[in-house]
Amino acid sequence: MIRVLFVDDHEMVRIGVSAYLSAQPDIEIIAEADDGAPAVALALELKPDIILMDLVMKEMDGIEATRKIIEQWPDAKIIIVTSFLDDDKVYPALEAGATSYMLKTSKAEEIAKAIRATYGGQSILEPEVTGKIMTKMRAKPEVNLHDQLTEREMEILLLMTQGNSNQEIADQLYIALKTVKVHVSNVLGKLEVQDRTQAVIYAFKHNLVK
């Protein structure tokens, strides 16, 4: 049996879908929740095979609930079932860790198929969702983070790869220590790294050091 936790804040939706799913020989609704917080608690307690997650709920939405579940249980398989196809819903839900994305306009048998497929390791997306993702990918050109660095910032990054301290960089470039610190901070931010060591690793990894 595929054990399912069903999360939706509309009781009539839960009743209708649950009735169909419970009639399936291989699917069992083990619990229901009408909001994100109880959904998180039930998911972590019961460890269902599949979580059907609504997005828009009163207290904690499905995106936040998905994020919290995945943070504590990375192997959770969550199927978003919602009425929304907005970009501010689709992408955050998938980034939060949702495995599949279905619309409430889907027939109950389609949701059952999605449950079986997701349980088997597949990711099921509505055609409209797939189209949105493909469009976003085509519109987003590949960019090297270091291309954002100014000439001075690149110069400072290369001096960092040589093991120079901020003061040594300031002395070599004849600029104030405070200015160097600002440039270093900009370099870390543009390269999306946490510290100088990671910046140096980035430089070597991308063959910036001659």
Quick summary of this structure?
One of its GO terms (molecular function) is DNA binding. The chain is α/β, with parallel strands linked by helices and 210 residues long.
Task: Please describe what this structure looks like.
This protein is of the alpha/beta class and 210 residues long. The protein has 2 domains: 2-139, Response regulator (Rossmann fold), CATH 3.40.50.2300; 145-205, Arc Repressor Mutant, subunit A (Orthogonal Bundle). It has helices at 11-22, 36-46, 62-72, 87-96, 108-119, 127-139, 151-161, 166-173, 177-191, 196-205; strands at 2-7, 27-33, 50-53, 78-82, 100-103. α3 links the parallel β3 and β4. α3 packs parallel to α4 (87-96), α7 (151-161) packs across α9 and α9 crosses α10. It is elongated. It starts with a strand and ends in a 5-residue tail after the last helix. The modification 4-aspartylphosphate is found at residue 54. GO terms for molecular function: DNA binding. It comes from Oceanobacillus zhaokaii.
What is the CATH class of the largest domain?
Alpha Beta
Poorly predicted ranges (pLDDT <50, ≥5 residues)? none
CATH homologous superfamily of the largest domain?
Answer: Response regulator
Give Rg in angstroms: 24 Å
Distance between the termini: 59 Å
Examine the coordinates and then state which fold CATH places here, giving the name of the CATH topology of the largest domain: Rossmann fold
Q: Which percent range describes the beta-strand content? A: 5-15%
CATH architecture designation of the largest domain: 3-Layer(aba) Sandwich
Apparent shape = elongated
Strand order of the largest sheet: 2-1-3-4-5
